[in-house]
Design brief:
alpha/beta
Length: 238
Amino acid sequence: MATEHRTSSLSRFTLGQRLTLAVVPRLVWALLMVVGRTWRFEVIAEDGVTPAFHGFTPRGEIYCFWHQCVLPCAFYFRSTHATILISQSFDGELITRTLELFGFRAVRGSSSRGGREGLLGLRRVLDSGTPAIFTADGPRGPIYKSKLGPIKLAQLTGVPIGAFHLEPKHTWRLGSWDRFLVPMPFTRIAVSWGQWTHVPESADSGTLEASRQQLDATLERARLSAGRHLGLAPEVTS
């Protein structure tokens, strides 16, 4: 059934897009598996935080990271079988096919279009004991500003939100909205973990927004801590 659904969904893409979907994910996977083995990961965390996949194996938890560090995350967390919420666009299909090669699973939707369907899918994922992951500011930004999707899922399930950021010492930074990071071979990469964000199940709209801002602040602390660990100058975001 999954194969039939995927085949039928291809009809909405152009011939060029279908060829891209057939070739690019395997090419990215192959290159990343080679280059990624040269990267050196260094794990840091805020006080009282145990890094996931390092000190323990997550079960039904929610995690968030900024969209720009998708590439190092794909390699570092490969084969964890974590499930990621990915948009239903062509870019989302491309990302889904690529991440599946690394052992990830996907629920299709977003915080705007298909949001309810995506959140319900992730709730089932959490109930099964599998971690759910969001690119907090994806798929189109603005950069470093999370959507309400993970906040609403945390409210719905009572599960707190973990935050992490992967920052390369040496990287190519693309001119895209998210300043997408392409780590250079043999570079150091800081894996930075922040505090948990707890969302009350009885939260009103004001409390949900306050929780979203708290998540933003935690993700930014993780990003800036990673940069300091590597001796990098703070990025100018304005």
